[in-house]
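Could someone model zinc ion with this protein?
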Amino acid sequence: MDITFKKCPECGSDKIRIVASDFKEPDGLVVSRLERWVCPDCQAIYYDDSAMRRIEAARTPAKSRSRSLVA
Ligand SMILES: [Zn+2]
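Reply:
Sure, complex below.
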């Protein structure tokens, strides 16, 4: 993770922690074992840059991804 929280920015709870589990989007996209910060008190969820990149990569079709690697 690129970011660290000692307290939840939303409610100030110190119970905020990293959760790594399968991430499912409403449209059916799944990112396995995605890490994000979750606050159990206010249900706030925070994604860092690497988590966002994994979601973006999962959204990008394999074809265009391999093309951009060559370019
Ligand atoms: Zn909170």
